[in-house]
Amino acid sequence: MTGDDPRPGLGLRRVINAAGTMTALGASAAVPEAVAAAARILPWFVEIDDLQRAASEAIAIATGAEAGMVTASASAGISLAVAAAMTGADPARVEQLPETAGMVNGVVIQQGHRIDYGAPLDTAVRITGARIVSVGQATSAFRYQLQHALAEPTAPVGYVVSHHVAPYGQMPLAEVVEVCRAADVPLIVDAASEYDLAGFLAAGADLVVYSAHKFLGGLTAGIVAGRKDLVRAAYAQNRGLGRGMKVGKEAIAATIAALEAWSRRDHRAHQEREDAAVRLWAGRLEQVAGVTAEAVVDPTGNPITRLRVRLGPESGTSAWDLSDALASGPRPVVVRDDEVDLGYFELDPCNLRPGEAEEVADRIAAELLFARQRGTGATPLSEWRRQREAVRLRWPD
User: Fold this and answer.
1) At what angle do helices 249-264 and 48-63 cross, to 10 degrees?
2) CATH number of the domain that residue 105 is part of
3) DSSP state for residue 282 in the 8-state scheme
4) Which pLDDT does position 1 carry in this prediction?
5) Of 43, 120, 145, 175, which is most buried by a Cβ count within 10 Å?
6) Does one domain contain both 231 and 332?
7) Contact criterion met (CB below 8 Å) for 224 and 4
8) CA-to-CA distance for 214 and 84, rounded, in angstroms?
9) Pair (163, 254) in one structural domain
């Protein structure tokens, strides 16, 4: 590690991120262009409306949108987009939220899209005063159900693009667009972690919400892009509930720089480095008893291949126990463990620094050896879940 790493001085561990762009790990390492842009603007006063106009132009170029704005986060972007669909740019209605008397306040969303991304999607919607109208069941939703929901006056339809979404039985985006267009109802797409900055608007979404600090590598922020009237209405929320979600000049400037850097990025070279890490991991694990390693592509279409590591009884441990073991000690390795209930975790290469792929492989080998030598087997899943939640609830202790 470089000598200017500030983490030890703050009492923080020098974590290796093999999980991906996760908020709990700081999302991503900001690209140099974003860091420089934030540092340049921080000492100066600016007119935020004008800075946001510059951001709107940059967002429009990157996404094909009519307009755009930078928000405090993608989650804030969802809330502001929902609020925009209810109030328009009417300042009286903006000030009225979260009280929605006299407004159409239903947000229609497939049941299988009501995810938890670290907090419930429902919360980002309901904080505006909106109510959620579910379509279908957890693993099935059909056109007639969406049409029935839209037969009554409704605010927007929400559509989520995420690996957390139920993996089958959902209406595809193209079909949702058709139904929304026929009903003249705006469609908001949550694409927080997606590489594709233009495809969702081109497919017919009215607003799309992105993270600026995940794959783009900006500072903590979100992006709302789409129809000018709806973006204007979302921006108007700064006079109401959006005030508590305001974004700083440094994050706006960094988002502009990150978008420009993204357009110049050698995406093929990045993918080749990531694929090399996956091959290294697979080669190291292919002969380990009780371990099955399989390369899997990103479920939403991002150009990322991860290694899925499945543990059987012969491994001497479980996916959840090994995940915890890797995350322990002064040099923790954090893996993508949101599906450990299914007996596996994944290794994500997109945020690795040079040499860290080898460290991850060495650490897995060492922890598996220790587990077999210890011979205690796996912690019951229910007990592991209880212990993990207890740790969360003890913060800041």
Assistant:
1) 20
2) 3.40.640.10
3) H
4) 42
5) 145
6) no
7) no
8) 24
9) yes
Mean pLDDT along residues 131-151? 96
- Give the residue numbers spanning the domain of 372: 8-24+267-393
Which of 298-317 are b and which e, b meaning 16 or more Cβ less than 10 Å from the residue's Cβ? Answer: bebebebbbbbbbbeeebbb
Q: How far is CA 139 from CA 123, 170, 287, in A?
A: 21, 7, 37
Whole-number pLDDT of residue 3: 61
Q: Tell me the C-alpha distance between 278 and 91, whole Å.
A: 52
pLDDT class of 238 with cuts at 50, 70, 90: very high
Same domain, 180 and 245: yes
Q: State the Rg of the chain over Cα.
A: 22
Closest by Cα among 313, 310, 367, 371 to 343: 310
- How far does the chain reach from its first CA to its final CA, in angstroms? 28
User: Rounded to 5 degrees, what are φ and ψ at 222?
Assistant: -125, 170
The closest of 178, 155, 5, 188 to 81, measured between CA atoms, is: 188
As a residue count, the chain comes to 397
Using the 8-state DSSP alphabet, how is residue 352 labeled? P
Q: Are residues 214 and 195 in the same domain?
A: yes
Question: Are both 164 and 313 inside the same structural domain?
Answer: no
Amino acid in position 71? T
The C-alpha atoms of residue 367 and residue 326 are separated, in whole angstroms, by 7
Q: pLDDT digit string (tens) for 3-35?
A: 688 999 999 999 999 999 888 888 889 999 999
Exposure letters 207-218 (e unless 16+ CB within 10 A, then b) = bbbbbbbbbbbb
Residue 362: is its pLDDT beyond 90? Answer: yes
Tell whether 1 is covered by a domain.
Answer: no
8-state DSSP, 182: H
The pLDDT of residue 22 is: 87
How far apart CA 198 and CA 280 sit, in angstroms, is 33
DSSP one-letter code for 336: B
Rounded Cα gap, residues 382 and 8, in angstroms: 34
Residue 267 has pLDDT above 60, yes or no: yes
Q: Are residues 258 and 130 in the same domain?
A: yes
Number of domains in the chain: 2
CB distance 304 to 193 below 8 Å: no
In the predicted model, is pLDDT for residue 105 greater than 60?
A: yes
